[in-house]
């Protein structure tokens, strides 16, 4: 059954969800029409501020019956348009489902609702002596959004990504059925792994309404190294040397002097040991002070042997936090330096990082456009930002399309993938189709069709 008049959506949904949880028409804030990047805008016809799994289930049953498009949203910090209701319909806001429900010390798990912020999970776990390792850059993102995009972050090189820390999920299917996937068990070979299918599916296969996360014990000691180099080639070529040493840093980040300059202008602060061309920022953690010190001292020697200009040990918590806070704010700093921007979140083999960065610099020169960036070079995930500056609409669109085509083509050429952690959403859908085999896209579409035959849940995203 399909609705003939969109005004009927409110009447129908208000039968299963209290009106105080509904926002319609002119009352809908424009914030619901875009994500953090802001390059795509469309408002839904109705916002449902869900308070429970049962709310989401009831709404999806209506959406499925009347074939109403439905999109789920958390904090709206995505960068690819994944949480935007591009076909109108219903937007289900899960930000109010933000309770930490249980810490199970014996099973080392934390059960949370999807609207809990990443920063709150980190604070809660660490106060109890535990540690949730995934560390995406946007700490104000919700855990539901992290799960939907399989977010990675800075600590992926040692600890892995979000998928590696999800034990169980409660998921509402497009039909409205409630599914419980996984459990507190460590091993599971019980049929198809639907939990991992939902993780990273960007809200196209189901809506996560509860998650049980794996925890580890909090490391007792943490130290970072800030290592400047004369050029990015020397910095990047040092990374495989580090990884072959037998020591795995918690994080290996790369950035250039332009990102530092943007941050200084953005924040009004001075970056420690500024005015170097290129930097590696490394972190080490562990339960033993002696072992961590032994590890970072060995890595410091390797950096010097491979052309580092200096090695600054950030063993003071205030100084360490200052540097990592700056690194976490590079995206906002670059964004504030231009009128509009869009992102390339490519991941390439670590052996191809220098080649890809060189190509990006060359592209920026040939296209006469700024493309600053930084990256998680420990795992090959690079973030480059195409800046509009003063270009008019037509020129900007032309240059943006040219740069996307060039960089994604180069990424595929060197054996990379379109997205390392931010997902596909709407913005990268075309480039995903170009980067994967037709048979792979066909199988993805078959899965989507089987799970969501009416194509109502986050339609036209990913594939």
From TrEMBL:
Cofactor(s) needed by this chain: FAD
Annotated keywords: FAD, Flavoprotein, Oxidoreductase
The keyword Flavoprotein appears for this protein: yes
PROSITE patterns tied to this protein: FAD_PCMH (PS51387)
Domain (FAD-binding PCMH-type): residue spans on this chain: 40-218
Keyword Membrane (UniProt): no
Pfam family, any one: FAD_binding_4
Recorded superkingdom: Bacteria
Listed name of the protein: FAD-binding oxidoreductase
Source organism: Agrilactobacillus yilanensis
Organism ancestry: Bacteria, Bacillati, Bacillota, Bacilli, Lactobacillales
């Amino acid at each position: 059954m399909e609705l003939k008049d969109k005004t009927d959506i409110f009447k129908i949904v208000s039968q299963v969800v209290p009106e105080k949880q509904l926002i319609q028409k002119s009352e809908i804030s424009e914030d619901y029409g875009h994500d953090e990047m802001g390059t795509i805008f469309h408002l839904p016809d109705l916002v449902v501020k869900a308070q429970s799994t049962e709310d989401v289930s009831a709404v999806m049953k209506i959406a499925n019956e009347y074939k109403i498009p439905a999109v789920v949203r958390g904090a709206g910090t995505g960068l690819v348009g994944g949480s935007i209701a591009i076909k109108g319909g219903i937007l289900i806001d899960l930000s109010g489902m933000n309770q930490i429900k249980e810490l199970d010390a014996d099973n080392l798990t934390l059960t949370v609702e999807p609207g809990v912020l990443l920063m709150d999970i980190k604070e809660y776990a660490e106060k109890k002596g535990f540690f949730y390792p995934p560390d995406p850059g946007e700490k104000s993102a919700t855990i539901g959004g992290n799960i939907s995009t399989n977010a990675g972050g800075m600590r992926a090189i040692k600890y892995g990504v979000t998928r590696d820390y999800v034990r169980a999920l409660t998921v509402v299917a497009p039909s409205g059925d409630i599914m419980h996937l996984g459990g507190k068990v460590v091993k599971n070979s019980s049929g198809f792994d639907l939990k991992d299918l939902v993780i990273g599916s960007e809200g196209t296969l189901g809506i996560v309404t509860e998650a049980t996360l794996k925890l580890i014990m909090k490391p007792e000691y943490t130290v970072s190294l800030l290592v400047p180099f004369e050029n990015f080639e020397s910095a990047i070529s040092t990374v495989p040397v580090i990884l072959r040493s037998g020591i795995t840093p918690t994080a290996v980040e790369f950035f250039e002097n332009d990102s530092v300059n943007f941050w200084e202008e953005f924040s009004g602060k001075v970056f420690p040991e500024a005015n170097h061309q290129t930097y590696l920022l490394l972190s080490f953690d562990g339960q033993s002070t002696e072992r961590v010190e032994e590890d970072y001292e060995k890595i410091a020697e390797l950096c010097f042997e491979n052309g580092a200009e200096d090695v600054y040990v950030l063993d003071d918590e205030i100084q360490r936090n200052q540097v990592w806070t700056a690194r976490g704010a590079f995206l906002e700093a670059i964004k504030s330096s231009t009128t509009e921007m869009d992102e390339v979140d490519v991941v390439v083999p670590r052996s191809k990082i220098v080649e890809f960065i060189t190509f990006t610099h060359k592209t920026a020169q040939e296209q006469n456009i700024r493309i600053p960036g930084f990256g998680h070079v420990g795992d090959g995930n690079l973030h480059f930002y195409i800046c509009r500056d003063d270009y008019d609409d037509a020129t900007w669109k032309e240059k943006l399309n040219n740069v996307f085509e060039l960089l994604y083509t180069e990424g595929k050429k060197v054996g990379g993938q379109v997205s390392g952690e931010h997902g596909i959403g709407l913005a990268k859908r075309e480039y995903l189709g170009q980067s994967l085999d037709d048979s792979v896209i066909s199988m993805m579409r078959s899965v989507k069709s089987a799970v969501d035959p009416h194509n109502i849940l986050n339609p036209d995203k990913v594939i």
